[in-house]
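Appendix B. Worked example

We walk through a single record from start to finish. Start with the input: the chain for Kell blood group glycoprotein, Homo sapiens, length 557.
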Amino acid sequence: LGGWRISGKWTSLNFNRTLRLLMSQYGHFPFFRVYLGPHPASPHTPVIQIDQPEFDVPLKQDQEQKIYAQIFREYLTYLNQLGTLLGGDPSKVQEHSSLSISITSRLFQFLRPLEQRRAQGKLFQMVTIDQLKEMAPAIDWLSCLQATFTPMSLSPSQSLVVHDVEYLKNMSQLVEEMLLKQRDFLQSHMILGLVVTLSPALDSQFQEARRKLSQKLRELTEQPPMPARPRWMKCVEETGTFFEPTLAALFVREAFGPSTRSAAMKLFTAIRDALITRLRNLPWMNEETQNMAQDKVAQLQVEMGASEWALKPELARQEYNDIQLGSSFLQSVLSCVRSLRARIVQSFLQPHPQHRWKVSPWDVNAYYSVSDHVVVFPAGLLQPPFFHPGYPRAVNFGAAGSIMAHELLHIFYQLLLPGGCLACDNHALQEAHLCLKRHYAAFPLPSRTSFNDSLTFLENAADVGGLAIALQAYSKRLLRHHGETVLPSLDLSPQQIFFRSYAQVMCRKPSPQDSHDTHSPPHLRVHGPLSSTPAFARYFRCARGALLNPSSRCQLW
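Next comes the structure step. The output line below is what the pipeline stores for this chain.
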């Protein structure tokens, strides 16, 4: 990469050559993000996407100036530590780190919020590489993208999806300005960013510096402290990421056999049937909308465990000839990063008529794909504590069943958006909206916890509706199958076990992803739905007017 002036050894290389190496060999994108994703008009056609960068600093558009300045001060301290650990002269490190912070700040100011770009119709703009070169000439787009997406064959007429053209124009002007006056500082900015990206693969001094920064930033942004994360967990995650083709087949064979699959499908069928019954009785839906909604549920595809593509025998036998594992942990990680990127590109180039899974088989996150009208439940979700064929039905319905119902309700998100259901009783729908928002706003928040009810509303509605549908399905099952297994060490009825099971899987510790989550904080995901369900208060004998037995409730689903 040519080194940097911080250590006194610097070869002034071509800027685009360095950028090309960072993108293709190190997976580091200092000025913008590039990735392969579905074409906006044709979901099964992959296209290169260019988006805003992901900043390492937790900045927000509406951040208080005082907090904004404090965040940058902490980040400057962190960059100074990195430069010093890499053998830099302290005075030079301070100067170059300050300029790097300045570049980040200016790039951040170029960003436009997602909502604004969507409202202006500028979230998905199709341009060719040639056109992009005219708009943002500082970047050699063809050579950088070609190196990153080998073995794809790109040309100047190649179409791309750009998510923020104005940002790229401003970014290009800043780079040109820096190349004219402060080329060495631009180089240092890119190298410091690379070191930040690679810090998990560097020694404990770099990781400790990162841990202290994260702790300080969470304090400044009033987030609860993160629990210590054992190193083995990181190692397991990285191994799963780099060797997924082989591990997917092994995991599913071990953890999701035919009996588990069959039991999970029976649970899903019961949940789906309960949803269809519930749709027929919604007061804000007219008969035509109810029929349309039932048809959508009937046409839905469901995939469980792992995708058929992931379980192909040839993938399980993959030899990973391009991965070089040696005595250097950093070099081993970089080799894995390059191999993974090549496999991703290769998989996008192959015909893939079915739905392309967004999660690994061992993940616990289910999801609904609008474009393919398919709901996905990975094998990781259909394991204890969420699900097991030998568990009491109350446990399975309360945990996995409520999650299945939640995902099914994603099918109808559009109906809940303003103007999304012209044939509905919009007055009744609006009343239910406001009722649910007031209901969630009434709960006290733990210290250092915040949430945006506009951002989380749709997920809150699915949480409340999902629990109600799972309870309805379970109650129907109890009527048909007399005699329910209970848990001998717990003095709880089957219905109490159902609610306990739901709360058990929703309650968790905070995680770094929470700031980007569209779900409410964990305690609200427990209290909101339970307090919206009259049966919970009845079975647990909650006093009238208590937190989980309010005097009035909302019904959206």
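Two observations about the output. The first helix runs from residue 15 to 25. The chain is about 55% helix and 10% strand.
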